[in-house]
Every structure is written in C-alpha cells, then in structure tokens.
Amino acid sequence: MRTALTALLAFAAGVLLMVGLSSHRASSPPASSGQEQAAQGATAPAPASTAATTDDDDATADHWPQQAPSPEQVMYAQRGMVHKALAELGPRTPGRPNLYVVAFGADGGEDVFRNEAEYAAKMFPQRFGPDAHVVVLENNPGSLDRHPLASWSNLEETLDGLANLMKPDEDILLLYLTTHGDEDHNLLVDLDPLPLDQIGANDLSDILSKRPFKWKVVVVNACYSGGFVPSLQGPGTLVITAARSDRSSFGCGADSDITYFGHAWLVDGLNHTTDFMEAYRQASAEIAQWEAKDKLTPSEPQMSVGSGIAEQLALWRKHITPGPVVAFKPAVPATMLGHPGEAR
Fold first, then answer.
1. What is the tens place of the pLDDT at every residue in 211-269?
2. Can you tell me the distance from the alpha carbon of 94 to that of 96, in angstroms, rounded to the nearest whole number?
C-alpha cells in the first residue's frame, strides 16, 4: 500500500511539474537578440526525448539530408566554417585596390540562389584575376559541409573578418545578396528547420554602417529590392537592385537555374564588361526584353551611385586584365531551363 501510494504521489508530482514547465515556456518572451541564437560558446540544451515523433518532425526528417550533420551540429559549426572560409582567401595584392566579394544565397528552398552564389565564387576571380577575393555564404541542403550558412550572424562575422584582411579605406567590398524579398523590404533567410532571422533594409544598412568599409557595392537581387536603396545609398556606395521598391523580379523557382537578374548582370553583363554600372545598364535592357516577351510587369531594376565610388571602381579596373568568359553551369541542375516568369 505504501509503495503504491508513493508511486501515485510521484506520478502526480511529475504531472504538476510538466504542467508548470509548459506554462513557463508558453509565457516566456522571445529572445531579444536581432540574430539567430547560434549559441557560440553557450551550453548546449539537453537533447529532446525521441520516444515520440510528430508530423512536423517527420517533415523535417524528410527535408534534412540523411547523411548531413544534425541541425544543431550545423549551427554550432558556423563560426569555425566562417573562419576557415576567410583563411582560404588569397593574399591581398598590395599597392592597389582589391575587390572582396561576399555572395549571400539566402533561401535554402530553391537551388537557383545557390547556383548564383557559387557562380559568383567562380566568375569573379577567373574574370577579374587574383585581386578579386570571394566568400560564399549560402543556405542549401546540398552544401552544409562546404559553405557557411547565409545568416545574419555569419554575415556580421564575415564582414568583421574581412575588415581585418582588407584596407577598408582602399579596397572595395561587393555584397551580392540573392533570395526572395517581400513588400515590406525584408529578405528571406531560410533553411528549414534552422531558426534564421530575416534581414530587412534597415537591418542591412545598420550591419554595414557598423563596419569601416569606405567603398561598397551592394547588389540586392530580390523582389521589391528597390526598397533597400534609401537606407543603403550614400557616399562611397554603389547600390544595384533587381527591381523597383513596389515591383517583383523574376526567374526563380524549382524549374529555373538562375534568376533573370543573375543571368543578365552576372553572366551576361560582367562577362562582357568589367564596369559594374555598365553591366547594370546592359542587364536592365536585357531584362526588359525578356519581361516584354513573357508579358510580365516590368521589374525596373534600380541603381544609386554615391560620390567617389565610380572613381574608386575605375582605379580598381586599371589593374585588371580581364579573363575569358566564364560559362554558367548550375551547381545543381534545374528541372527545366530558360526563364520561367515566376515572381520572387
């Protein structure tokens, strides 16, 4: 009898404890940090019980690569991966401006963004020579062990590392972001089930303004990306966007291998000119032709040229001997080729 009573009391206490914990979790406020909690240096939480699974758990298991590290392992590996990527950059060429490129492919649900980020990593050094240094940050299930994630934290970590490698008052930072965008001018940063924060126009401006880079080229390839211009524009900065602040851009989706803008500016434009602004003008005309052919509402790419940046880019180009055209080859072949007019 005493044993049975003891067991009953223990069971009741356990139920009350679980109810209390559930209530506390439900009422706890969200973390105040503006970035995903990468938990660098923090104590790892105890693993959850695997005694039961839910439909969400099954969906995550189906989406996550079977041979990949667990989501928690991926998150904890990020700082080391960023430092490794920075350490693998070639040495800075002294005596002239160097170009440092960060390719940021942020939506892990579509290979098109990975394709663009990895093409940039190949094209810039092959086309523009050893003075062009590239770091790839990308969200894709197929490259978890090769590239750091395209996340808010990794972007800041990468920029901090580059600030130590570059001459911030001489070298040029080129940030190429490719993903989906929304009407409130936020960029989709996503790799399910990882808890990644989205990046808005003011967020990106704040991230860059805290770093010492005098010369910047910021390319935002997303829908409604013109909304990033007001907060990013200024002296020493060239801003290029794939669309107006109130317009969609096109060319993503499972059946696309590269976006309209990525094709027009990266592949066609920069393979024919070393001038980023001339590549923009060529790309805008080419995109307009594609959109007219497909009977799409024009995206109307935008450009803002801050004081001094054109001259600094011209100084960088003086030392370039352009390499041959760099062919585009998808990192992951798309189901269909061409320019499907799917809004982003």
1. 999 999 999 999 999 999 999 999 999 999 999 999 999 998 778 899 999 999 999 99
2. 6
Question: Is 302 part of a structural domain of the chain?
Answer: yes
| 269-278 tens-digit pLDDT | 999 999 999 9
What are residue 188's phi and psi, to 5 degrees?
A: -75, 120
Domain, as residue range, for 187 = 80-317
- Tell me, yes or no, whether 292 lies in a domain: yes
Is 192 part of a structural domain of the chain?
Answer: yes
Evaluated on CA atoms 186, 189, 190, 196, the torsion sign reads: negative
Determine the Cα–Cα distance for residues 266 and 217; give it in Å rounded to an integer: 14
DSSP helix/strand/coil, 232: helix
Cβ neighbours around 162 below 10 Å, total = 21
Q: What does residue 280 show for φ and ψ, rounded to 5 degrees?
A: -65, -45
Count of structural domains within the chain: 1
DSSP one-letter string for 145-170: TTS----HHHHHHHHHHHHHHS-TTT
Q: What are 175-200's pLDDT values in tens digits?
A: 999 999 999 999 999 999 999 999 99
What gap in Å lies between CA 258 and CA 101, rounded to an integer? 19
pLDDT for the residue 34: 33
The CATH code of the domain that includes 126 is 3.40.50.1460
Note the pLDDT of residue 228.
98
The 8-class DSSP code of residue 338 comes to S
Half-sphere exposure of 205 (CA within 13 A, CB side): 14
Q: Is residue 2 part of a domain?
A: no
